[in-house]
Predict the 3D structure of the following.
Amino acid sequence: MRQHRRFAFDLKRLILLLALVSTVITLLTSYLAIFQVEKKLLIESSLRASQSYAARLSLTADLFFNAAQKQVAYSADLLGDEFDNRDAITEEADRLQVQSKRFSSVLVVDKTGVVRAASRNSAEMVGLKLVSGANTAALSTQNPVLSSPFRTAQGNHIMVLSSPIRNARGGYLGYLATEIDLSKSSIVDTLINARNYRKDAYIYVIDREGDVLYRDASGWIESVPQGHVNKALLGDREQGFLLMDNLQGEASLAGFAAMEVAGWTVLVLHPARADVVLLYNVMMQVLLYTLPIVILVFICIWLLTRYISMPLRQLASRADTMDSEDVSQEIEQINAWYYESSKLKTVMLQGIRLLHQRIEKLSTEAHTDPMTGLLNRRGFYELVDKQLTEVSRIAVITLDIDHFKKINDTYGHDVGDVVITQLARLILDSSREGDLLCRMGGEEFLLLLPGASVTQAIQLAERLRRQVESHHFEGAGNVTISLGVTHFYPGRDNIDGALKAADKALYQAKNEGRNRVINL
Ligand SMILES: Nc1nc2c(ncn2[C@@H]2O[C@H](COP(=O)(O)OP(=O)(O)OP(=O)(O)O)[C@@H](O)[C@H]2O)c(=O)[nH]1
């Protein structure tokens, strides 16, 4: 019987699931790998770009300070010879201020920190004692000094570049101080152009301690440092890059380069978020490029899965109908194209062959009388149902051995068996092809004569009776039989009714003295 039970997971679904899971895992791993590599490349190139931009800015600033320092040193040299000549040093200070575009004012300071002479635009400073940090540094080091930005008492935001003045014997006389006005210095312009690099970048200049001197959002920072960068992060390197938080605490990519003259560091920073967005765009592109291939792969997997599972699926569905007659033919047609399915197909075909043989044997055993080889009662009824429906008329003869009990009792059961077997042979020999002889039980037989008339049946019954009467049965000698004859029309009459009538005729034959034929 065909079973319609379906499992949630059949082979096709399982293979499909397995293939899909492995494909998805492979894809995800690949995307993750691409993501990591891209991230590394992007961040590294971003960091390197920031570093090289910081280096460029640092070089530009260095060129500026270098040139300025040389100019100041040159004038300081000249002043050493004429330090006592106030007119001459005033003249030189003024010349330096006017000729140079870099300095807002020029002061000649003696070694006590008092302004000895000044360019004309700062004449009011002459005679004042300076107290700024830049002054202290210049006097104490007696070396060229570049100060941090600071605001003067007059409110000017400046940076001081100074150079020591010495006499011909090298004696320290004081220093030449030049002020760089940070509100209009070209160095400010240079650094402010950081936006040329990228819009989200910020430029910082930090001093040796990490205090922020310049921030391109605010320019050069005034007296109080507005921020602090952990200088240790930069290490001892002249240039480099690193990941760090900006002053707002945002994760940023930073490149840096040290300024040689000032000893400060230029830091170029931009938030990492922009690169992350870029990275996601790149990943989206990768996804878009690979998507059609992924879909194609999925379709191929699906088709292949169908192709692989098909033979097993077909074999499995035939397993439900192994008892049907044409199942072998159906299995033969299955394309079992790979080893396992072909092996299974062969085994199923063998199994079905054996099963059918066994069923046939059991069926034969169930329908046959083992002693005579004739159909038994069950076999008779099945055959009648199957084969005799199309015959218009059937004659029925029932026959029974007379006094068989006596034969058994007199000669033994084995002799009785021989009598039954020989009688079956006798009847078979006398009947036509197409006639149907059955052993209905014990010593009772039934003979169906399809198409025969009652007269023909009576004649046959009489002939049989005489043959048996004259036959010598081994071990038992002469035996007689009684016969009942009737007929019926299969389309019209019931077989059971005919059998009853035949039995009745037989019963009458027995009653009337046995060894006779009665027709009813
Ligand atoms: N040897 C042998 N005896 C059988 C077999 N089947 C039934 N018998 C015997 O057949 C006998 C049938 O006896 P009954 O039905 O009483 O009838 P009967 O002795 O033939 O007498 P009537 O039929 O009235 O002439 C019984 O003794 C059964 O044991 C068989 O296969 N072999």
